[in-house]
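Bench log, entry 3. Co-assembly request; chain sequences pasted below exactly as received.
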Amino acid sequence: MSELTVVEPFGDGFVAALGPELMLFAGLLVLILLPNLGRGTFRIPGTQIRLPWLLGGNRFKLTSDPRLPSWIATITLTAAFLNILYIFSEGLDRVAIMTESGKEILLVNGFSRVFELIFFGALALASFSSMNRLAVKGSGSKLSEHELYNNRRQGDFYILMITCALGMSVVALAQDLFVLFIGLELASFSTYVLVAFLKESKAGVESGMKYFIVGSVASGVGLYGLSMLYLWAGSLQFSVLATHFATSGTTALPLIGIGFVLVGFGFKVSAAPFHFAAPDAYAGASSPVAGVLATASKAMGMLGLIRMLLIVAAPESSDGSAVWLICFGALAAVTMTWGNLAALGSQNPKRMLAYSSVAHAGYMLAAITAIGAWNWDAAVAGDAGTAAVAVLTALLFHLVVLVAFKLGAFLVLSVLESEGGASSLSSLGGLAKREPLLAVSMFIFMISLAGVPPMAGFLSKLLVIMAIVRVAVGDMGSEIAAGGAFDVGDFHWVWWLALLMVVNSAISMFYYLRVVVVMFFDQPEEGREGPLPSGWQVRTAILLCVLTTVFVGVAGNGLLELCEMAANSLNYDW
Amino acid sequence: MDDWISLPLVGFPLIASVVLLAFVSNANQATRDRLASPIRMVCLVFSSLLLVVTTGMFFQYFGNVSWEGISFNSYEFDHRYLWIEALGIHWAVGMDALSFPMVWLTTFLLPVTIIATWNEKNGATYFPIVLAMGGALIGVFVSLDLFMFYVFWELTLIPMFFLILMWGGKDRRYASQKFFIYTFTASVIMLLGLITLYFFQDTSNPMIHAGTMTGRTFDIQTITSHALVENSNGNWYLGANIQKVLFVMLMLGFLVKLPAVPFHTWLPDAHVQAPTGGSMLLAGVMLKMGAYGMFRLPLSLFPHALQYFQLTLMIIGMISLVWGAIVCLGQTNLKKMVAYSSVSHMGVIVIGIATMQPMGWAAALFMMFAHGVISPMLFAVCGAFKHHYHSMEIGAMRGMAKHSPWLATSMMFAWMASLGLPLLAGFVAELMVLIALWYMIAAEGWSVLWMVGPALVLAITAAYYLWSMQRTIFEGGDETQPPASLHGEPVPDITDSEKLAMIILAVFTILFGVMPWIALDMMNDWTVQIFEGLILPILGNFNGGA
Amino acid sequence: MAGSENSVTVHSEWMEYAPLIILLPMMSFAVILFLGRVFNGHPFWKNTLKEGGLIALPVMAASLILSLLLISEFLKGHSAFDSLFETIPWVNTAVWNGGAATDSVSLGFGIYVDHITVMLLFVASFLCLLINTFSIGYMNTDPINDNRNHRFYAEFVLFCSGMLGMVLADSFLWLFIFWELMGLCSYLLIGFYYERPSAASAAKKAFLTTRIGDVFLVVGLVMLWDLFGSLNYAVVFDTYNIEQVAAHSAGTLQWALGLMFIGAVGKSAQFPLHVWLPDAMEGPTPVSALIHAATMVNAGLYLVARMFPFFGADALHGDLDDLAFIIASVGGITAVMAAAIAFVQMDLKKVLAYSTMSQLAYIFTGLGCAMYLANTLDWHHDKDAHYIVIVAFGAALFHLFNHAMAKGMLFMASGSVIHEVHHAHHHLHHHDDHGDDHGDDHDDHHDDHFDAQSMENMGGLASKMPITATAMLVGSASIMGLPLIGGFWSKEGIIANAWRVAQDDPRFFLPAACVLIGAAMTGFYMSRMWFMTFAGKPKNEVAAHVGPTNTWIKTPLFILTFVTLSSIILAGMGFTHWASDTSYSFLSERTLIEGIVYEMDHAFLNSDAFFFILTYIAIFLGAVVGPGLAMALYGGSLAEGETAKPWMRPVLRLSAWMNGRFYFDNSAFRDSTFAIALQNRLYIDEYYDKAMVNIVAGFSNKVAEADSEVIDGTIKSIESGSQSLSTFVRSMTTGSARDYILMVSVGTLVIFFLIWGMA
Amino acid sequence: MIDPALVSGLSALMFVIGLGGAFTRKNAIIVLMCIELMLNAANMQFAAAAVHHGDTTGWVYTLFAIAIAASEVAIGLAIFLAVYGQHETISLDDVDILKN
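Structure output for the full assembly:
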């Protein structure tokens, strides 16, 4: 791990350290400006002289192309994504952005960068595949006002995508809880609008409203929790909070504060019982957006949880029965079971995926619970640091690969949506005959979600279970070899979460498989015969997702090492 | 060196299958129909090549390996590639006398299945899927890495799921899902057991292939040797309760796969709905995965727990045996009857294991093998019956001996083989299990009543098979009419390819019945090795030193 | 007889070929089956090769020749040969008795020849050849069999292979294996006319009933294996080994042997597993002759005879007498029961079937008594006792021999009768459409209700089928035990020994009385059969038109008649001693003439008053009372213008006289409940069927239901339960954002209070 | 100067009122106001804490939070408008075509 470089905001090295984020910023500016370039003129006041100043007016052919914003957003996000990959390959510099007064605002390290990979990757795929998704009517100047208006809206959509990415990257980088919160809100607001973007449909606006209003309540609670923490510690710096927790973290005030903050993040990761708006939002939003909610947005919430719990509160959990640990265990159990049970009977594939996303949140919460339990028994816990790294690696890995198959699944639905809706399972009927490749892709996504080898989803689920078991079992093996005697009762109780998790995986198999059966067995719905509308962008995106899913599944070593490195870089002092 | 040979054995069928499927995926129906024949040929040639390779391995043409005398926990043709370093996962393959017969059986059944279902519809996709099935099955048997084992274990579900879903009978939708979910449920619990076992490794032990992140290895050979050392110290490996729990978790996965009563109900549904080829592979090899897994993991790792659960296992085996047989007697559906007879026969395997005698284990191994040769024929007959008479009901078609002498002969042969007629493959195993069971009963003072079950089943098995033959092959008399389901069409006999498949299967059934030692010697050798290497040092006083 | 202390491993040139006795027929099975499939309907195949009959014939001849060579080799050596060639290690495995290493175990195949083997080997291979000859005459001339005779011959040779293998095998295991092979062939052959539901059902019944016995046999074998660690005769008969076992598990051994005996009961159709044999007559007559009279049913006897060394062992002295009693009693009961049922049978073959059952029961009684004697007398040291035991055992074996020859002949003769009656019927009623294709023949074979096997359709055939009638006469006499003919020599011995034992052990009065009464009953039903068939006037038009039979059929009848008649020579040569003890050989004690005189003297002028009287009672019952009643009821002279061969005329005349003089109306008996019960086979079959249908089928249906309702039902209710749970869970997502906010608030409050409470 | 603890208590009260109002009222605008109430409760808490700790960052947080609240209102109202356009109501109970 390289030395930590400290940089002042806008000081030397600031640009170099925040390259990807600044690229996004530049992209955002371009996105705002470029589609507005046209033959607009500026009349010098009081004269009839019109100076062409290129803003507004009849757009140029290029700038009026409705695909332009999408391309800009895609390229920007992809560039940021590749930039991070490049940074990884070159070797990462750890850079802290610190104010003069010594307040650490942002920290660039492997951990935050991996999350940015998730965010940018998901958003890039979503914006790329949205290219054929929104109603556009050619280009040029012969469009009606309505069509023109529609084309202009394209810009808004992708602007929101990029602001969302910016907000998320702030969450990833933040070292101050309030900064994190600001990033979170930026991303949230963007997603609220993205969800409600289909304002011509009842479902679209309804889902937007529900998502907004419930999300706002949750973040209101979260902000209040933040204020309580501030009240208690006098600072929202992670480092300060962590020190405070280590010394006096067992009083009610900080714990309740943390609990309230968790509500805010719980909504983002759609943990029960904060998940209720999620299925509605997914169902009403366009599929790529729903995919973003299920992957990037969830990763953001998960990131917040990790930051909060591991950096701030972890040292407190040393006795194994910490309050938040039990809360979390219960939350994980309820969430995964609830999600799976609800998905079991769901006839709407998007809602089904939403509930499955809830279930996956439960799995990840279980993993976080395990991290909290890492040093429950000094005798057998083994090297706590490595145990925690293992869990964290599993979490990161899961979040990364989730982008491939969860988003991929939504993208397949997106193709169906462009034909006329994907709100019932039967709309998938006969897909195997109509579009064998799409059907096979969907099949791969489904079994990957269910955790069937050799797909990425299996590896990630395996890692999560392994991480939990690792914590639950610790070094008992060595102790036994040294003559110790242990019983099943000596396992840490998080082991039972692992059991619950595998049982839930089995339940989930049922509804994932149902999708497959519908695709391969049922006949197409009335009037839905033949191939689906083409759209090479979305298909390319799906193909990318499939390839990633399979490739990571059979050769996940590289990604695993990356995640491990990232997890290590979170290593404060545990 | 030929050590790498199991890599292509697993990889090539899978790759070939994916390539072929990708090749036809975007073709339209007409092109697919045109491609079906060449693809079928490719698959046949390919699978026959695999058979040639494994047969060559048997005859020591490759690697000059003697399958006998391989000591416990060492493997031939073993090879390792690093797969996922962080977790200690390798592509670790190898074969011993436990796995090799199963590998051979798989490669043997692949071409036979292809021949037997020569005219299956949508051949362009069907045959590659069969090929993939074979690759996955071989993968299960050759893998020496828990992760890899599990990957292939689950991978077998996918082609089978599609075989049932796409080519199955009327209720295939229900059956395929039930099959998948049921066995998946059991195997995820097994997975948790495997992972827990993984983390119970002593990190202070030298582990050559340990993962960089976890400090432990998935390598079966390493784990087994550690367990062996620990067990031979007189201690329960991992301690009594933990060993028991892990044993139960692993066994659960394997017992469901086997399947043993009461976890068997997925099997009749899957079999009845599966197409002939699916049934043949399902009964022939896939069920054996359960038994194979038991030998490879729980029995090799947890001998103490095995001893502790001996009675439980015996009860499960007996119940499977008797229950399966009695249910057979109450069936009117031919294929369902045969499916339940598989349950019954798998009970024999469990009993063989529960005897904790080398003979019982060798018998269980031979039963796996023999049933692997016989049951495909049973299902090939059922498939042909269904194919030709459009019905599976016993009694729908009588006087088959007149209309379809080939089918009638095949049926009688297969039925007789399955009911354990001497000089056919199934008899040896049943006899050996009986002897081992009695030996154990006598040595350990168990109740003589334990013999009642197997004895009863010998009679019941004959009863249901004879009963079904009476109503299918025989009778008909002057009224011998084609079944109503044929709607007056002439009654056909089986096709030439089906005949060929039947003959091949029959020849091998006789071969292994008359000369069981071909396969049995190596199996016996393996069981002696495991007994002398593992069970005996630990449980030396187990039989009371009679 | 003796154990393996006498056995030596002899390598002789013919012994090397012994496996061929088994393998030749086995291989020709495949050949005939294959050729038959391919050339079915081909004229050369059909007419020249007789659809495989002429392939089977030389094979069986070769087997006979090889057997004879082996036998002659053996007779020179006078002792048991074991493992005539390298034993094939069929199954190699290991057991672990708790020691430091596993013990390897081998179940191999080899060949073992001793006196019993030799005798049965001759019986089997000789009869197989004759019946093969007979079959060519019988099967190939009946149109119903056209194009499927290859199946008959294939199954026939496989059966022969099984029988010969069983006889030659060197262990109980391989005995059992070939035994099962025979069972299979028997199943296939009974079901030869598969299209008849009755044949299908009979085949199933035969297999299943014997299978039930086999189950016990297997368990017995397993127990025996456990005691000795082997099933090889050489090991289990070894005196030392028997001592070892006797020391601590004589009781277990008795159980093992008892279970094995149940297997024999099934195979030899003894009460209560006898039900399959009469039904087995559904098969073609050569099958009935070979399998269900002459050879296969002897397998059970062979098995029991094989157990003799245990009973004879010093170490087990007095330990196995209960089992001997059971064997004898089962025999006694069956003998009487079967004979009684035979009284009322009208079907020619069924009479013979019950007769078979009854005669086999005699042999069982004889074996049981011999075993009792061997087990309780100190025969290894006491010379007199030794003689008694040897003769008792020898008598049973001799009866086996005599019965096989006679019954084989009787069945062939009956087949010949049936064949001709059937043909006569055919000619009479279907003269016009005889040229039609076989399908039609097949059909009208079933359309008419004429029963060619019923004795009510016969009568007065003595003149029309002289050879057949003669053979039948001799055979019946042999079975009845008419003095000097065939079975007389052995039957008297069995009766005498039964009574001898009864004197020692009162329990044995049951079998002893049974066999004595049985003698009279045998006399009655056998005579009844002969008179109904051959004496009197033809009972209907068909019987009047029966013609003589063909050469293929006559030849074996002719040969067997002489074999049966020459029984006295065998007796004179000391068969009863030779067959039961290695220390004797043919003519070892006396010359032929001396031997015959000795036997005569022994039989008719027994020095012991008890046995003297007993002999005459038995002769009186069997040769006077039984036949006399039969003559009175069923005798009669031939129709006008018909003449029988001279040797049959006195019999016919006597019967006519008896019938005229002593005829009485037996309708009271015929209509009695008892007679009806006999006609219904004492309702045993019915009870078995009821038990099958009500108990077994009922139970299995219940179990199948439980399987789908309870076990699978649990799975299904888990599924439906989780579905309804899912509906409930989803119903909480009401659609109203207010409720969602409520949920968030509730979650918040729960967290709040939880932490508040705990912190 | 007012005791920060009192301010804090007031903020707690406001928070509870806001939260209670959020799930009892069904008019979206009122719910939005309740949410604002919650945010303002947080703001007051920040201010009180800033006073309590003598730390200026608390004031900064408050400012930012106000900005956030403002943009939230803007987005909210925009969405409600769109909802009204489609559903002709903004009653939370009546906008429920998506459920289960």
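Confidence is low (pLDDT under 50) at residues 542-546 of chain B. Chain B touches chain A through 51 residues (CB under 8 Å).
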